[in-house]
Design goal:
By secondary structure, this protein is mainly alpha-helical. α6 (124-134) packs across α9 (170-180). It starts with a helix and ends with a helix. The longest helix has 32 residues, at 87-118. The radius of gyration is 26 Å and the shape is globular. The protein has two domains: 17-70, no CATH class; 83-250, MetI-like fold. It contains 14 helices and no strands.
Length: 292
């Protein structure tokens, strides 16, 4: 009797751990449903960029265009050509802000997170607690203090007004510190015994092991900075980023609805492409990092 109960218990446990074919199909259909629901706005945005003007106002809207056209992009190109500031200037401003802000944030956040995660010093707990509390405030709450600080140090109408707050964001510090805590202390101690300096330990041991964390930061900050329009910090037309120029071009009468669709597609395709490429690297790093 006890043997039968033991066999029944192991069989039941095995059935719980392994889904049936019907369960796998149901799970696949559920995930496919959520995937379609999530991808629908992206597909619609991409589809609208290639629709003629009459199809953009159909109700109910069509997912795919019947008469594929590139007129929206031609109109956008003509409007860009008529701008008194070269389009390359807007593009350069965006690249400058995005690259410096992203690289600076990842580097500064990582270098600050390393001693917080692996060294004990007075005030470490208080400092990290303040970092965690800072994550609770929405950007709208800190907008006025940020503007006052930027104005006091004389960075209004300067790309640094966008780059410096991005570099000083507390999200990266929190994320990198949590990842670095997972690195065994014995690994760092053995590197010190072998004569490795602090900089070598940081760049050649710590940073490769926390690659998923800083790749995630790159994705998040790249998307944020790519779509910034300068806000209330940049007023000179020659210093405005690409998103501001495209939105200004798209503003107008109902005749520019196609141009607006083309602008939305352009602003969307670059971050999505960057995310897809980086996401594959993140999954690969998680698989081969060896960290539990």
């Amino acid at each position: 009797m006890n043997l039968f109960k033991s066999i029944k218990r192991s069989f039941t446990k095995k059935r719980k751990l392994n889904r049936s074919l019907g369960g796998d199909i149901a799970l696949f259909l559920l995930l496919a449903l959520f995937g379609i629901f999530s991808a629908y706005p992206l597909i619609m945005t991409a589809s609208n960029a290639f629709k003629p003007l009459d199809e953009l106002f159909l109700f109910p809207p069509r997912l795919f265009p019947r008469n594929l056209t590139l007129d929206n992009f031609r109109d956008l190109s003509e409007l860009i050509g008529n701008s008194w500031i070269p389009f390359s200037r807007y593009f350069f401003n965006t690249i400058l802000i995005t690259v410096i802000g992203t690289v600076g944030h990842v580097l500064i956040a990582s270098m600050c997170a390393f001693p917080l995660a692996k060294y004990k010093f007075p005030g470490r707990t208080i400092f990290f607690t303040l970092v965690v509390y800072s994550l609770m405030f929405a950007p709208q709450v800190t907008a006025t203090p940020n503007y006052i600080i930027i104005a006091k140090i004389g960075l209004i109408d300067n790309p640094a007004a966008i780059i410096l707050p991005a570099i000083a964001s507390s999200l990266g510090l929190y994320l990198m510190k949590q990842f670095m805590q997972q690195i065994p202390d014995e690994l760092i101690e053995s590197a010190k015994i072998d004569g490795a300096s602090e900089y070598r330990i940081f760049f050649q041991i710590v940073m490769p092991l926390v690659k998923p964390a800083w790749l995630t930061l790159i994705i998040l900050l790249f998307q944020r900075l790519w779509t910034t329009d300068g806000g209330s910090f940049i007023f000179s037309e020659e210093l405005k980023p690409l998103s501001y120029a495209l939105r200004q071009i798209a503003q107008g009468t109902i005749e520019r609805a196609g141009t607006i669709a083309a602008v939305s597609f352009i602003m969307m395709i670059v971050p999505i492409t960057f995310f897809i490429v980086s996401q594959s690297r993140i999954v690969e790093t998680f698989s081969h990092s060896g960290m539990k």
